[in-house]
Each structure stands twice: as structure tokens, then as C-alpha cells.
Amino acid sequence: MGLSIAKDCIRRMHGDLQLIMVADADVCFRIELPLTTAENE
């Protein structure tokens, strides 16, 4: 349930949440969020 909420919040900020396969790691997530400046607002 927590991961679903996190994914929803990230998508609302126009980002993405991905599950990434990494050697010697149980779980690894990648969060991508757009970077904006004051000029873009």
C-alpha cells in the first residue's frame, strides 16, 4: 500500500518510480522527478 501511495505522489509531480534490478541488492527503486527553475514557473 505504501509503494502505491508513493507512486501516485511521484506521478502527480510528473515523475516516475521504477523497480531496478541490481546485483547484491534485495530491492532498488529509481525515482525520477523533473527539475524546474523559477523561470519555468
From TrEMBL:
GO terms for molecular function: kinase activity. SUPFAM superfamilies: ATPase domain of HSP90 chaperone/DNA topoisomerase II/histidine kinase. It comes from the Bacteria. Keywords: Kinase, Transferase. InterPro entries: HATPase_C_sf. This is Sensor histidine kinase GlrK. It comes from Serratia symbiotica. The gene is yfhK.
